[in-house]
Amino acid sequence: MNSRITKSVFLKRKEENVPITVITAYDYAMAKIIDRCGMDAILIGDSLGNVVLGYDSTLPVTMEDMIHHTKAVCRAAKRAMIITDLPFMSYETSIADGVRNAGRLLKEGGAQAVKIEGGEEIVPVVKAIVSAGIPVMGHLGLTPQSVHQLGGFKVQGKDEQTAQKLINDAKMLEEAGMFSIVLECVPSKLADKVSKSLKIPTIGIGAGNGCDGQVIVINDILGMDADFTPKLAKKYVDLNKIISEAVTSYMTEVVARTFPGEENSFKMSDDVLEKLY
Ligand code: KIV
Asked: What is the pTM of this model?
């Protein structure tokens, strides 16, 4: 087995200009496939709330949800770095809450790093988590936990003021000790500028090709949702169609009594059968 990807690999990849590959997973089966593909990192994102739990935002996701799904991913992934999101209200209430909850994601969940949304305002809690020995990844741009403050799921940093704030925030987060920062839904040219101004790698999602790596929500590239693929994702396969066809075939065969066939059934001797009453 190859050794575990660590934050030093992330930094080395940036120095050597080799893109870092990150994808979300939320369960054992998917994490096992992803890990075998050789992805650098698996993110147990709080997108869990949308794509697995069926909420319309990430806000209802709890620490217990994140720990439960992190444990499942960790049972499968032996090589990829495992990063888990700190969910809404797990770090905003106090520095102590932030450190305690980040610690839980490693201690109980088994993750190797945590991800946290926000800029300058989270610097104190980031410093405290890093001081506790926990690698921290940032998340700037469209930060879904602030959807109500942002006024919807919109591209961020299009005007001078918000673009400059994003650059300043990124520098402050690097200074605070983060090992990497996700840039979500920001113009490609701004993401390029941020990436060039940092020593730590940026991981883009809807942030163009100039980031030091890319992250994506796995359900979006697999085409799991028949009605929606976000602009920032490419549908590599239409699993919704494939799964629907498979389930319909199964249903049809059950009704027609053609499944299970002989090959899916178990035998016993007629002698035993004859003795039964
Ligand atoms: O929750 C998540 O999946 C994320 C990615 C979109 C970066 O934060």
From this structure: 0.96
